[in-house]
Design a protein that fits this description.
The structure holds 2 protein chains of 2 kinds. Chain A is of the alpha+beta class. Chain A has 5 helices and 5 strands, in the order ββαβββαααα. Chain B is built from 18 helices and 30 strands. Classes of the chains: A alpha+beta, B alpha+beta.
Amino acid sequence: MKVGVTLNINGKDHAVQVEPRRTLADAIREECGQTGTHLGCEHGVCGACTILLDGEPVRACLMFAVQAAGRRIRTVEGLADGEKLHPLQRAFIEHHGLQCGYCTPGFLMLAAGTLERNPDVSDGELKEILSSNLCRCTGYKNIVKAVRAAAAEMKARR
Amino acid sequence: MKSKVVGKSVPRLEDLPLVTGRGRFAADVNFANQLHMRVVRSGHAHGRIRSIDLSRARATPGVFAAWTAADVAGLLPIALREGPDAKLDPYLQPVLAGERVRYVGEPVAVVFAEDPYLAEDAADLVGVEVAELPVVLDAHEPPSEFAPGRLTEPLVIRKGYGDVEAAFRAAHAVIELDLSIGRHSGVPLETRGAIARYDAGRDLIQMYGAAKVPHRTRDGIARVLGRDPATVHLYEGHVGGGFGVRGEVYPEDVLVCLGALRLGRPVKWIEDRYENLIATNHSREQRHRVRAAVDRGGCILALDDEFFHDQGAYPRTHGARVVDLTAGMLPGPYHVPAYRVAGHYRLTNKTPAATYRAPGRYEGSFVRERLMDAIAQRLGLDPIEVRRRNLIPKTAFPYRRELDAIGDEVVLDSGDYNGLLDKALAGIGWDALQKDLKRRRAAGESVGAGVAMYLEKSGLGPRDGARISVDGLGDVEVVTGSASLGQGVETVMAQICADALGVDYRRVRVIHGQTDRIAKGIGAHASRATVMTGSAVHVAASNLRAKAIEAAARLMKVPADALDVIDGRVVRKDSPDAISIELGEVARSMASVPDAPGLSAEGWFETEHMNYPYGVQVAVVKVDRETGGVQVEKFLIAYDVGRAVNPMMIEGQIAGGFAQGLGGALLEEFQYDERGQPLSVTFADYLLPTLSETPMVDVIVSQDAPSPRNPLGLKGAGEAGVTAVGAALAAAIDDAIGIPGAVTRLPVTPMRLKEILDRASGARTD
């Protein structure tokens, strides 16, 4: 039995019908067509599905779609301002912070949620936060470089 | 002035869609009216199937069809990619198990439904009754019966040269080790997926979600289905990592194609992570009993290795390739006057195994480098000095070994192994490091360092081709039979094409992984793409350049040898800023040339042998004696790639490979209980390294030894980072705990290291 729920993704309302057991990640991808959010494990470990929920990084595979009603959802599709890339997106390109790109949306959203609240995040804190997502291609080195570079830029802009 | 991009760390062409959420991975592909497939898997490691009851699943609303082996009886078993093998063919996996199940995770039935949640519900309702049989879980045990008249050891690969017996008789010392490498695998972050549809009008099956070697995989799927390969097309979209395991011929690929063909609707299958950890190829599990005969100075006189390869339940795509590569590459960068190896290919009741990044070399490098350390220990020599005494000198190339690896005679093309060792030791500051470690050990810390050297292989032939066209706007399309698993194939090919043709690399669009765009392709595996496809692109772009100049010469009424192509324009060499024609205009002028319209050219590249990049890895670790935990403080990788097309991307490959090597050395292991039940079925049990466990690896990309076997001097780098990580970490851990030869088994989990430490302290108190 499906129920109606309105998901606000990147400022746009999506009125969808889903089963109560439908995960938020599946609803974002399938019902709302925003396939930039990826699924890597569906049990909350890898973080590929990380989105921002009211500005807070969360794992979209661990929530039901119906739980996100009335919340502001931000996904990787909402990171750039039109054609203008977010500093994190530019930094990931510039510092080769991605290879296959599958974990990238999750890392971008995790880092965006962190830096937009606290661009002064310390190296130690950042290491701990970025350790919550998995990447199988890069060995993390360039992800750290990219996030640090974006943090510096975002801080300078403040 | 021509600006060259080969050798420069230019930004990747791949990145923009990937950072903006516009990638197109397998799960992102949807077709109207599609069905969702769910595979019912064996919950038993070994048993006779008594019955499979589909009635409840079939009666579930929304279920369109459900099959068991009886429904797919006409299919051949899962094919070996490299063609039939008389020794392995009787052991191949059926698409769906009919009589016996041989591992937990083996497909026994399949359900097609309107929705993936529904399909999963219905799959849970399939009743599978199995009479359990005894399980084989240790490949080192004597072979048992696979089927009447067939043992669980289909073959043994034997290689060797020289008089091994005489060398051992004459030896000053014989060093013998028993070493094991744990079962782990590529585990890409994107699980497998396949979406197929059938075009009845053209009698064509189209499958999306292909990767790695789309052309050969197409051939394999076609063979199983009993169709001509020309009636099956595979399409590769974005691929979320491969590392050897993704893009092989699996039962699920065949089932989605057959589903689409029979059910008249597109069929989509996306693997979940639980399935991925029990059904996608495993790798690496081997046990070696290895001996070295050495002279008084620590020089190797002979190596003798017998090893047992745990293949899991069935042969997979490569047949016995991992065993063959282990045997063929084991001597590494050293001069080994006599060598004998026997690799036992053994079937067990675990998930089938195949290649994972640096197959056979990760395993063999652990064995060989442990042996080098043991030789040093026995003779009281410095481990680095022992290596130097055995390295093949740079004057010895080409260096022929009386040996083959995957059917290719081993002729090492070029190298300066000693020189790279110098670079690595200088890079880490070895002497200062030793002093520092000594000081820290004196202060009570358990810290240590280790060095490992290795030989890689790349650019397996025999040939590859590419076709390049310039359109009327001057944009360039390079059509290859290569594939991209995320490593940056598009950028590499664009860079090579850009320099050879004379265009901006950003105007080059690279096609890969589309079997309907080019007749043949070798995909992306075994560090082949840059060497083989890259060389073919170089040849094709050179041909195209000549063709463009010839046509422009007619238009400009000047001799061809007076012209050059710079930045997309054909110009006069003597006055590049004066008169010129854009390549797009040349292409337009050729649009109606009879027989060969348009500006395009093909190029082929052939090579007789593989080539051999090489590396040095240095590890520094700290051990917590209370917990058995290992912290990798520093890691340096020096790697000679012959010629670097894009150093940034090579460093990226190496850093990523390093993390995977670290995983296999310290964290990752597929474990089973005594009944063959897999215990590592989530990311909470199968531990991938996170940033916290992964230090910022230092990378030295060296270009001392270009390969003489291709026009650009290229060697592959895809497997460069992973190969000797287990070996280097083992040496560093030994050093940190002060027990030479302590590590004999990977991964060195905290529990295992604690056992080693407890045993040692027990021995001391005794």
